[in-house]
Amino acid sequence: MVRALTEQEHNDIANAIRSSESRTSGEIYCVLARSSGNYFFVAGFIAAVSVLLAGLAAALVLEHWWISVRLPWFAAAQLLAVACALLLLWLAPSLRIALVPHSVRFRHAHDNALKQFLARNVHLTAERTGVLLFVSIEERFAEVVADSGINAKVPQETWNAVVAGLVAAAREDRLARGFVEAVTAVGDLLAAHFPVRDDDTNELDDHLVEI
Question: What's the mean pLDDT in 151-173?
């Protein structure tokens, strides 16, 4: 689990944003999410199906050994096992993510990235040059969401490289440095295509938001 960022690390990221935006009319926004979903129902469904399948396997083994178990007792045992699994998932949310398929995790995190892009008004910059750097810790997911103005000028492979840097930084517990490097890289891209104007105004807050 990635540790919480310190105040100094928040300041470093904010300074990197201000430095990058001093060279461009574009805007950079950073969001760090601890999780992008509750996952109780997804994990609960998978746990319940697993318990039922395990019960079926146990029934076949008992049948093979000629051991008879009355159906009401067997059904009650299965229901109790499902209830215990659901209770455990309810009381220990950190266990849920282990049961969630990667495709579901990434879909939730991607949807959250788009939600943050809209909620933080990154899509409302004057030249459509807002860029969101998004990381969701529990899903081990990172994404760059760029508005149409800059996205039309930058190939997807370039954004993929920025994402790879963020993911590697999170894995090595240097996420703050990863954000600084990503902000600098995005700032270089924005400056190349949208250099700063004399009448440029700061349209978005210059800091990392943790949710």
Answer: 92
